[in-house]
Amino acid sequence: MGRIQAGAIPRQQKGHWRPLNHSFSDKRIQRHINPIERPRIVSASSQSVHSAPSSANSAETKSVDFIRTIINEHMRTDAYAGRVATRFPPEPNGYLHIGHAKSICLNFGIANDYSGACHLRMDDTDPTKESMEYVESIKQDVKWLGFDWGDNMFYASDYFEQLYDYAVKLIQLGKAYVCSLNEQEIREYRGTVTEPGKDSPYRNRSVEENLDLFRRMRAGEFPDGAHVVRAKIDMASPNMKMRDPLIYRIRHAHHYRTGDKWCIYPLYDFAHCLSDSIERITHSICTLEFENNRELYDWILDTLEVEKPRPHQYEFARLSLNYTVMSKRKLLYLVEKKLVSGWDDPRLPTISGMRRRGVTPEALRKFCESIGIAKANSSVDMAQLEFAIRDDLNQRVPRVLAVLRPLKVIIENYPEGRTEDLDAPLYPHDVPKEGSRLLPFSREIYIEQDDFMENPPKDYYRLSPGAEVRLRHAYVIRCDKVVKNDAGEVTELYCHYFPETKSGEGGEERKVKGTIHWVSAAHAVPAEIRLYDRLFVDEFPEDVDQSLNPNSLVVLKDGFVEASLASAEPGSRYQFERLGYFCADSVDSKPGSLVFNRIVTLRDSWAKKAAPEKAAPVKKESQPKEKKASSAPAPAKAPVMELTPAQEERFKRYQETMGLPADNARMIASDEALANFFETALSSHASPKSLSNWVVNELQRVLKDANIAALPFGPEAFASLVAMVDDEVISGKIAKDVFEEMLSTGADPKQIVDEKGLKQITDPSQLAPIVTKVLAANPDNVTLYKEGRNNVLGFLVGQVLKETGGKASPKLINELVVQQLNS
User: Fold this and answer.
1) What is the torsional sign of CA 558, 559, 560, 566?
2) Is 170 within 8 Å of 178 (Cβ atoms)?
């Protein structure tokens, strides 16, 4: 068999592929070697398609992440002859989600910055899960985000013949073999992280026997699972991925593109690196869970001696977002169990779901840019995404009036049958847009039920009996009479309006403390309003069934919107004043039957819910008379820090955008150096709450009056430490010990953890024997537990934790202890 060239592209001619010569006559590949047409990207500001900048130095105009730093060095050294070629390689087995959006923006963004190309490649090597529906949805999502792959659309299935030949070559080299162990046996032979694996009894089959079996596998002689092809590497490798990994399997399944031509299919790790090589990708960017796969990636390319320069894999932290799930398996479960309405359900983090909800591509791109590209996994607060959405919509959507839960108001002294059109601006003064609409006003209007209270508390500034409020863009009214039904529910209000208080005509001189929205009853347009909220109540949902938020969707059938929205087009977005940002549903809404989805509220409604409740004051017992008298002064209360306007703005941002507790937000906002340290750390680990807790509780404790610049480490190292705690790499207790050493030596926290072996133990096989030992040493407590005394569980977990030196995952220990106790 001749040498397989890395630049080969399959040709569907008589079932064979032909390798390309060095003239690279195929225009699809030629583009990213000598770009004739630059990749097209949608401008975030204009939504028009334009070419990428011609200078590779355009990357220098933005903050340079570690991947672009690597590329800049490659450009300087001419490592790839000035070429940059990336790829976005989704598996077409589900719809894309916001985590994919981060990868799309990174890969296409890099190609744009360096006048290179980004390929869209479907990694379609598993026919049992893939379909053309998913392919089309992926293409739609990438284009909607504003990116265009041009002619660079590929499929791993394009390369099946080449990949088969590559596997044949590995067998000929004695670097692969056909293994006849079943799936369970392969797993048992692989070993554990602490024990080497065992060689398969089929590992030393001859080259001839392996080639014959592989040919017969392709011919369809064997059933699924009878044989697999494995790379022959090292069963004792500390990297489990290198213990003779599978590279081919039998699947008698119809492939959505190749039909029934194949009954053997390559595994992802084998197909992925070779597809990159075939397409002459330069920088293969993937998420951190593939870090251990890099060694296999390089081994395959090196062993097959594909042409140089070869692609190299780089890993970055995937996006983890709280109050949602981004596992394809869990998303598919939600869809198949009909816990959501489909892949485009507006509550899902899928790109199609967010598009239907009304989120703009500009907002998602801005969000992806704001969280940055880091090497350490971290969790991003949902509030940060919601802030990006609000910030984008604030500058682009018109303001209108809508009433979601209507309460009728009759203005008794307004002439019957009269209607006047009020001129109302569509945008506030701080949005650089102009425009207005006519807002009809009449004797009967609707207001929100929540804007009236019969017996209001002291600081209630909306409508109540005898109280006055201003109707937005209209007049001041006073409530004179309340009408109730037999159930005691308020059904109507009779009010008095003051003609001299008309907005825009000097009527603002009459001062009232509250302003409410309304719609004219005679002109109001009926609308169904869908109030979407976060899908889960748990910050990090494990059991999706148990964590579902029962209020994630509230449908209001009796809402009204102002007359100007009667012909609202599907997909059009508005701010309903005082209520939030809304979008006419792209599927169900149409003139005459309007449906509006809430995109996002006007402010973070979860911040107060997440904040811990203040403990009720404890009443002290009365003291004896002689002890009560004392000349000692009472301890002074800690003064509330006075903030400058700039600090006050920062304080509000920390609370409203990041969801920080008030005390944390105030302390950090009041100190310029501390705030700069915190925000720099945030760019490396986007978890505001975790970082703020460490800043306030640990960093401030050691700083006191010291200068933060005197610290022997920077904010990036500090963020790295907090990220390891959040990712459960180390325990909180161990983290404090690491922090002390950082203060003493300035050493990198990861280096400290690696050198001292402080990583949290997360392997059940390592912990199970320790649990067994502890239970055997505490038979009395085991008996108590089995008798129903669950309070001893904490003791037993603590003993196991003590045995591991505090390095084990408490959650995992708890699971293992309960499992053994109940076995």
Assistant:
1) negative
2) no
- Mean pLDDT estimate for the chain: 85
Phi, psi for residue 761 in degrees, rounded to 5 = -80, 120
Q: What is the 3-state secondary structure (H, E, C) of 108-138?
A: HHHHHHCCCEEEEEECCCCCCCCCHHHHHHH
Residue pLDDT, tens place only, 434-493: 999 999 999 999 999 999 999 998 889 999 999 999 999 999 999 999 999 999 999 999
CA 485 from centre of chain = 48
278 — alpha (psi -120 to 50), left (phi > 0) or beta?
alpha
Residue 361's pLDDT band (cuts 50, 70, 90): very high
Q: At what angle do helices 764-777 and 779-786 cross, to 10 degrees?
A: 100
pLDDT in tens, 177-196: 999 999 999 999 999 988 99
Q: What is the pLDDT of residue 75?
A: 95
Cβ pair 368, 145 in contact under 8 A: no
- 3-class SS of residue 745: helix
Q: Is 79 helix (H, G, I), strand (E, B) or coil?
A: coil
What is the per-residue pLDDT across 131-183, written as a single tens digit (0 to 9) for each?
999 999 999 999 999 999 999 999 999 999 999 999 999 999 999 999 999 99
- Residue 815 DSSP symbol: H
For 550-577, what is each residue's pLDDT tens digit? Answer: 999 999 999 999 999 999 999 999 999 9
Q: Which of 125, 139, 155, 116 is nearest to 32 (CA)?
A: 116
Contact 7, 278 (CB under 8 A): yes
The dihedrals phi and psi of 398, each to the nearest 5 degrees, come to -75, 155
C-alpha to C-alpha distances, 807 to 178, 385, 632, 732, nearest whole angstrom: 41, 34, 47, 10
Q: List active site positions.
A: 91, 318, 328
Entry pTM: 0.69
β-strand partners of 496: 478
Determine which of 125-129, 268-272, 684-688 has the lowest per-residue pLDDT on average.
684-688
In the chain, the amino acid numbered 622 is S
301 Cβ contact partners less than 8 Å away, ≥ 6 residues apart: 273, 274, 277, 310, 311
* Strand 176-179 with 228-231, pairing: antiparallel
Strand arrangement of the beta sheet that strand 228-231 belongs to? 176-179, 228-231, 246-250, 264-266
Cα→Cα distances 648→128, 305, 669, Å: 56, 61, 7
Q: What are the phi and psi torsion angles at 627 (to 5°)?
A: -85, -20
Distance, CA of 800 to CA of 810 (rounded, Å): 9
Comparison of pLDDT for 56 and 554, the residue scoring more: 554
Contact predicate 399/78, CB 8 Å: no
Alpha carbon dihedral 378, 243, 127, 333, in 10-degree steps, equals: -40
